Predict the structure.
Amino acid sequence: MATKHIIVDDLSVEYLGATKKIYALQHVSLDINRGESIALVGESGCGKSTLGVSFINLLPLNSRITSGTIKFISNSKEIDIFKTPTSELQKLRWSKIVMMAQGALNAFNPVMRIRDHFIDTAYSHGWKNKTEILNKARYLLKRVHLDSERVLSSFPHELSGGMRQRVLLSLGLLLNPEVVILDEPTTALDILTQRNIIELLKELKKEFNFTLIFITHDLSLAAELADRVAVMYAGKAVEVGDVYDIFATPYHPYTAGLITSTPKLRGESTEVTSIPGSPPNLSEIFKGCPFYERCPLRSNVCINSQPKLTAVEEKDGHLVACHHASKNTLEHIKQGDWLSTIQ
Ligand SMILES: Nc1ncnc2c1ncn2[C@@H]1O[C@H](COP(=O)(O)OP(=O)(O)OP(=O)(O)O)[C@@H](O)[C@H]1O
Ligand SMILES: [Mg+2]
């Protein structure tokens, strides 16, 4: 039986925009197990990063948590993230939960050599021995296949994007975190470099045994790396399950649409289609299913009643929020004429 590491319960987050509110997360519940690798996937704007920063309560000032909790379980103690004082949270970040935010590759201090990034991070968490810090940094940099001496004395701009991503990974592991959150870590990189980073992440996970939360819009990357997948749509988790179940038997038409719009990495090439339409405006709270407008399986019940995330009959741990969820959804979607062929 898997032990829970993070429990998200009924989380809602809104942003106060210039003229209106944006309901970025709407009643999201999700359990993350110790030692697993879970991918949060979905189209741009569905709330992935908002959930990512919520894990360590780094939401921006114009945001508000309007419902729910996030609990982090460490050494058998339950930590309520939103009730933890900032000083305690600062200790928790990097040492227990490390978040590599979207675009973090550009967040290195340009006037600091890489060695000083390691030293600063360790000092701010109470390490005092510089030799010890640098030895650990050297080990970690070698572990990500970098020339540690050259990298330590470099400035960030002297390194390529792929190298900076590796440095960031080793910096993130400096304090042996229990949870590593990576928000679109490979988006800015070419496809071969992306593959290398994915392989590297698998190796690092094996050695350091952290829980990995991997945020991506790329379903094929999720398939490569994750044990479980949480599919998000319009601020909600709409399907959660084991990676094989999600890909072989998606119950939600949106998940099925994502699968048929993702080119296969291996095996025979198949037709790739796109989901017509675009995600809804998040400045309204949905009365019914947020996928209604784009859904080929919709019916009247979907207009006024919000489907709840519930277990599918066949599989333990496979959850879906759809009034018409069925194990035949992928077949229906493939046969349907609602998908526009793009290739
Ligand atoms: N600081 C902010 N102020 C106002 N609105 C925001 C802010 N950050 C995000 N949003 C809005 O909240 C919604 C969710 O954004 P979020 O960044 O979580 O999506 P995402 O799934 O990470 O998207 P992407 O794949 O493009 O990174 C979007 O509608 C976005 O415009
Ligand atoms: Mg994002």
Q: What stands out?
A: The chain has twelve helices and 14 strands.
